[in-house]
Amino acid sequence: MTKAVRVHKVGGPEALVYESVDVLAPGPGEVRLRQHAVGVNFIDVYFRTGLYKAPGLPFIAGNEAAGEVVAVGPGVTNFHPGDRVAYYFTLGGYASERVIPADKLVKLPDHITYEQGAVLMLKGLTVWYLLHKTFKVEPGHRVLIHAAAGGIGLLACQWAKALGAHVIGTVGTKAKADLALANGCDHVILYNEEDFVARVKQISRNELCDVVYDGVGKTTFPGSLSCLRPRGLFVSFGNASGPVPPFPLAELNNHGSLFATRPKLNDYVSTRKELLEGADTLFAAVINGKLHVPINHAYALKDAAKAHTELESRATTGAAILRP
Fold this sequence. Notes:
The protein has nine helices and 16 strands. By secondary structure, it is of the alpha/beta class. It is globular. The longest helix has 21 residues. Helix 2 crosses helix 3 and helix 2 packs across helix 8. The chain starts with a strand and ends with a strand.
């Protein structure tokens, strides 16, 4: 028996139930892990509330973690007991041990801690694909990053700045503004006190942005469209405030022949080759100092409900982890 956090009925943070579960021996192509750190993400909230549909009930929450291989199944030759690994894989992360397909794992370099690995595989790989694949950020680009002090936001601001972009971030408090400025933002907008569209126009001298990265959703739309230059790209990659409502395609025309996309990580790491490309690029950015991994909140696994409550109330900055 091992400890895990399961959802028996979708709902609020109280739906996260800490309990004992059985963990089977790894089957063909599988690995059993003893987990050392588990990432906490808004996608976990989406599954818990039912916005994203789990395959069935009950399910173990959580989508990224890092740990140690304790056993391998038949046919697994590239991982061995004792290997330090990390992963992004839909559901099953909120547990002290688990079984997972070996092809979803990557080995952690010696200079990457379990805690860093546990937040880099979903948040870090998301930033990798957003800045390198969805829109290739290059020197001179002006980018707007909503929720700039969040787990994804702080990584995105750092990496965009390292790529030579002019970075504008939005945040909810002065403390978060200071944090964003310390992590790559050239300008920070307090969206609770300022009209972020007007401030973007002022900052850019009406030249607006090449791309907007929007993980907030409902409350920042359609303002995000108004921050884009003609033929700019609106990247809606999250729903922290609720989903973006349906809108007429003509809105893209009205704002200057804009492009819009709603990407997800699975489509950018759908092959083993893509996963390794992203992980290698990401780990190199951390090791060479381009990326600092801010882990500002740690909770015991049994306190997963508290972690969700604080995440949803915008009380957190940077990344949060659970310790099994």
